[in-house]
Design brief:
- The protein is an alpha+beta fold.
- It has three domains: 285 residues, no CATH class; 110 residues, no CATH class; 58 residues, Arc Repressor Mutant, subunit A (Orthogonal Bundle), CATH 1.10.10.
- A hairpin with a 4-residue loop joins strand 13 and strand 14.
- Helix 12 packs across helix 15 and helix 13 runs antiparallel to helix 14.
- The longest helix has 20 residues.
- It is elongated, with a radius of gyration of 30 Å.
- The N and C termini lie far apart (78 Å).
- It is an enzyme of class 6 (ligase).
- One of its GO terms (molecular function) is ATP binding.
């Protein structure tokens, strides 16, 4: 039986986190009223002229540096001509002949332990198109131009990936690089990161690539993985049946787990590219490039190593915390305040993760401040409040970002620190529960848990469990 190899390359579009669009001053904010973030430039009105947003160039160059690319210090824009209803100018300003970044790579490691370098052919800047809104009940479509002119970078990989697992590892690494740079939030569900998959199959050992197809409409990593497996099987079935794979663009339907043809794949000449006449060439000076390099942040791999060495965190903790920039920032600022990295890690990885899961939240949606988390940790560590109260207070911090010191004071949640009164309460509970005392002395050490529970109940949860255990053992072991 023939064995087949999958060959995959990606075109990843990333919307940049500028406040305004690439060629005009309109807002890039997501979710505005349709056609409210528009002007003559981004709606393609006759006579309007584009003016390049400098921040777009800085973000593009920063991503290129972080992905080991060569920066094209003298580059320009080109005009890509095509008609589509959400493209108001009937052309797109992009880069074909002199993209800003070339010949890079990023190193990946899959969950199964495969390590390899994925080549990046180029990164180029361009403007996004608008969005078609289809009428589910009729036969018409409406156009929202809010997204038209939002700045994009397109990151084009080499065809170096051989499985869905490698693709996901590449995308996750790329997303973290861009997020750490602050160049984009990379929210797939909002379209600020989108991937088109170019895929072909060939017999194992064959020198030449097979005919590739391009799949669009992929808005989650799971959908991308399913689409790759589905397209691989479809192409193999065609080849096994003696039919030809057609070079085309296909649309993936994740609900039906099926792709269907959209159009035959165009070549570059079909777009009639020519130099963009309304924009001057971009000159990136050595000084400007050095400044962009100087502002590169500490990325995930370096941060992971530092968390283990500097904060003495286990690899598991460091891996989870550095896997999201917002969590990493929250961890570092909180630790700087309370100087207790392991406790900060525990609160983020246990209680924070639990509440995020219950509320179906992403780390970027966390609203509580590191200052209030640090205050809570200090209250718990100094035994002003016990662990059960700390969890109760944290839920209030998580939901409302309350000041824990004020909340504990106002609600009378401090531990009862009168050791004499606590000892009297425990002696009474021991006297009232002779069976538990007998069980403890006969070797049933779990019996002490019942007595601790009765003490907590009697003190309305305000006593410190550690202190209760200590006093109980002193009394029981006499």
């Amino acid at each position: 039986m023939k064995q087949y190899e999958t060959v995959i390359g990606l075109e990843v579009h990333v919307e940049l986190a500028t406040k305004t669009k690439i060629f005009c001053g309109c807002s890039t904010e997501f979710g505005g009223k349709p056609n409210s973030h528009t002007c003559p430039v981004c709606t393609g009105m006759p006579g309007s002229l584009p003016v390049l947003n400098k921040k777009v160039v800085e973000y593009a160059a920063a991503v290129g540096i972080a992905t080991n690319c060569t920066i094209t210090q003298n580059c320009k824009f080109d005009r890509k001509n095509y008609f589509y209803p959400d493209n108001p100018q009937n052309y797109q300003i992009s880069q074909l002949y002199q993209p800003i970044c070339r010949n890079g790579h990023i190193d990946i490691e899959t969950e199964s332990g495969v390590k390899k370098s994925i080549g990046i052919h180029e990164i180029h800047m361009e403007e996004d198109a608008g969005k078609l809104v289809h009428d589910e009940w009729g036969e018409s479509s409406l156009v929202d131009f809010n997204r038209s002119g939002v700045p994009l970078i397109e990151i084009v990989s080499e065809p170096d990936m051989r499985s869905a697992e490698e693709v996901i590892a590449y995308l996750e690494k790329l997303r973290l690089i861009v997020q750490y740079l602050g160049a984009s939030d990379c929210k797939l569900q909002e379209g600020s990161m989108r991937a088109d998959v170019n895929l072909s199959v060939r017999e194992v050992g064959a020198a030449e690539f097979g005919t590739r197809t391009e799949m669009k409409n992929l808005n989650s990593f799971k959908a991308i993985a399913r689409a790759i497996e589905g397209e691989r099987e479809r192409q193999i079935d065609l080849i096994e049946a003696g039919e030809k794979v057609v070079q085309e663009t296909r649309r993936w339907d994740d609900t039906k787990e099926y792709s269907y043809a959209m159009r035959s794949k165009e070549d570059a000449q079909d777009y009639r590219y020519f130099p963009e006449p309304d924009l001057v060439p971009i000159i990136i000076s050595d000084e400007w490039l050095d400044e962009i390099k100087k502002n590169q942040p500490e990325f995930r791999d370096e941060k992971f190593k530092r968390y283990i060495e500097e904060y003495k965190l286990p690899e598991y903790d460091a891996d989870i915390l550095t896997g999201n920039k917002h969590l990493a920032d929250l961890f570092e600022v909180t630790t700087a305040i309370c100087n207790n990295p392991k406790k900060v890690s525990n609160w983020l990885m246990v209680e924070t993760m639990r509440l995020m899961k219950e509320n179906e939240m992403e780390p970027e949606q966390l609203k509580f401040s590191p200052e209030n988390l640090a205050k809570l940790i200090n209250l718990a560590e100094s035994r002003v409040i016990n662990s059960s109260v700390a969890k109760e207070v944290f839920e209030k911090i998580f939901n409302e970002d309350i000041d824990p010191e004020k909340y504990v004071e106002e609600n009378g949640l401090k531990n009862d620190t009168d050791d004499g009164a606590l000892k009297e309460t425990i002696e009474k509970i021991v006297a009232d529960n002779p069976q538990s005392v007998e069980d403890y002395h006969s070797g049933k050490k779990k019996a002490i848990g019942f007595l601790v529970g009765q003490t907590m109940k009697a003190t309305q949860g305000k006593a410190d469990p550690g202190m209760i255990n200590q006093i109980l053992k002193e009394i029981l072991d006499k």
